Amino acid sequence: MKLYGLIGYPLTHSFSKKYFTEKFEKEGLSDCRYENFPISRIDELKQMLKDVRPRGLNVTIPYKEKVIGYLDFVSELVQKTGACNCIRIDEGKLLGYNTDVIGFEKSLFPLLESKHQKALVLGSGGASKSIVHVLEKLGISFQIVSRHPAPGQISYHQITAEIVADHLLIINTTPLGMYPDMQTYPPIPYEAVTGNHFLFDLIYNPEITAFLKKGAEKKATICNGMEMLRIQAEESWRIWNNLI
Fold it and tell me: Of the residues 51, 78, 98, which one is the last residue of a structural domain?
């Protein structure tokens, strides 16, 4: 049996197991299985690998940055973003990759319009780093918003209606609004959101978060993270099977 899986904590929100289980059934891959491995601390990774011996892993909140110290190899994208969400295990070596970048870029780009030249990036964690990499590649200027802002970043208390009005692309990279805490959302002045805005939420469970609902109420373009998940999952599969 070829075992693959997801590490993170908690994992109640994740659709990855469902996605890969359906993929394996559809493609007749009866010797493949995908499981969730909810490790409460990243230092549990080594023992988990010994116990279950997977061929490949996806990495989610809160370990996309912390896992890098456990890897034997990191791709150029992991080096550039400082975030890893895909691991291939090859002869006991952990090889780290980033598939969030391609997932976000391919799901964002078809919906972008020329007016989306400035972005607010809500959150400064591992997922945020992949998003920033894509924005830089696309020539979109951005402002990162964080609960604990580093130099060059701002806090949520500093976001004014004028800042929201000036940034027509707003991307939520935080877990606010994710199942089961679906009533939560990033604290920004939503009254300044208009029909010219594009709100992108990396969360895909629920399908429409409170953040996206607030955008829809203002006639903004909205998009969740489901297509991003699908794209990055397929890219992970190619990496695990050495098809890239």
Answer: 98
188 in the same domain as 85 = no
Q: Is residue 202 part of a domain?
A: yes
Instruction: Please indicate, yes or no, whether residues 108 and 76 belong to a single structural domain of this protein.
Output: no
Domain boundary among 54, 79, 98: 98
**5: its two tokens:** 């899986």
> In tens digits, what is the pLDDT along the chain, a chain of 244 residues?
999 999 999 998 889 999 999 999 999 999 999 999 999 999 999 999 999 999 999 999 899 999 999 999 999 999 999 999 999 999 999 999 999 999 999 999 999 999 999 999 999 998 999 999 999 999 999 999 999 999 999 999 999 999 999 999 999 999 999 999 999 999 999 999 999 999 999 999 999 999 999 999 999 999 999 999 999 999 999 999 988 7
| Separation CA 218–CA 123 (nearest Å) | 22
68 and 171 in a common domain: no
Q: What is the CA radius of gyration of the chain?
A: 18
Which of the residues are catalytic? 64
Strand partners for 90: 93
Between the two ends of the chain, the Cα-to-Cα distance in Å is 23
DSSP alpha helix (H) spans, 9-144: 16-26, 45-52, 76-81, 100-108, 126-138
Report d(CA 167, CA 156) in Å as an integer.
14
Taking the mean position of all CA atoms in its chain, how far away is CA 221?
19
Residue 242 lies in a domain: no
Please tell me the total count of domains within the chain.
Answer: 2
